């Protein structure tokens, strides 16, 4: 499985560390068929998709082995029983109004004429992100954040940080010209994954250090 690091594997599930620039699932067109799920399925034919990361995002992703495990994990995601955290570097010096975690609670809607972009719109789906500051870099004028998506909308973290006027560095869809040039990739990494094992019921916690 070229460029795909296996963090954990048993008879029920796989936890993978996806590199930036690799699709989670196939896209439209012959040039978008290489992806994490197909690379995994070359070795594990029974591997099934449970959730996705954006192509530009790196980090932890779980796949189920078999239909039963997929159903159980899908239900866990639907019930918000799977907890994910991300690390991002954003443009500007962002200060939390709270001592610890702050919340972005803004509805997200597909910008249909400009898809796959999303926008903040009152007609959108309720979307909630928790965030806290990890470190400021006054020299670079950037802020390292830890992010926890409470909901799981497409592009949620990227849209919510844009809404704060602190886009994630290297974001070609939601960044400013200045923020895009500060990094050669999207500085967003799925760094922590917590879930309950579908068979044993054991609490599992996986971590991955950001490569930036």
Protein described:
The chain is α+β, with helices and mostly antiparallel strands and 212 residues long. It folds into 2 domains: 5-82, Pseudouridine synthase (2-Layer Sandwich), CATH 3.30.2350; 85-188, Pseudouridine synthase, CATH 3.30.2350.10. Helix content is 15%, strand content 34%. The chain has 4 helices and 12 strands; from the N terminus they run ββαββαββββββααββ. Strands 1, 2, 3, 4, 5, 6, 9, 10, 11 and 12 form a 10-stranded mixed β-sheet that branches. A hairpin with a 7-residue loop joins strand 7 and strand 8. The longest helix is centred in the middle third of the chain and has 12 residues, at 67-78. The protein is globular. The model has no long low-confidence stretch (mean pLDDT 95).
Briefly summarize what is shown.
With 212 residues, this protein is of the alpha+beta class. The protein has four helices and twelve strands.
């Amino acid at each position: 499985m070229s460029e795909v690091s296996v963090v954990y594997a048993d008879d029920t599930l796989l936890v993978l560390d996806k590199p930036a620039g690799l699709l989670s699932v196939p896209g439209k067109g012959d040039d978008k068929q290489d992806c994490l799920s197909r690379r995994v399925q070359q070795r594990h034919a029974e591997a099934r998709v449970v959730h996705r990361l954006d192509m530009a995002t790196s980090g932890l992703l779980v796949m189920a082995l078999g239909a039963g495990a997929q159903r159980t994990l899908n239900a866990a995601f639907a019930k918000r029983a799977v907890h994910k955290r991300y690390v991002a570097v954003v443009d500007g010096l962002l200060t939390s109004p709270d001592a610890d975690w702050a919340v972005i609670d803004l509805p997200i809607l597909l910008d249909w004429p400009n898809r796959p972009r999303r926008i903040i719109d009152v007609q959108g789906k309720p979307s909630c992100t928790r965030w806290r500051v990890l470190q400021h870099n006054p020299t670079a004028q950037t802020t390292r954040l830890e992010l926890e998506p409470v909901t799981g909308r497409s592009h949620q973290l990227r849209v919510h940080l844009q809404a704060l006027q602190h886009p994630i560095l290297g974001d070609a869809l939601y960044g400013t010209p200045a923020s895009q040039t500060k990094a050669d990739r999207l500085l967003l990494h799925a760094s922590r994954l917590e879930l309950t094992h579908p068979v044993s019921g054991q609490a599992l916690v996986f971590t991955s250090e950001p490569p930036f």
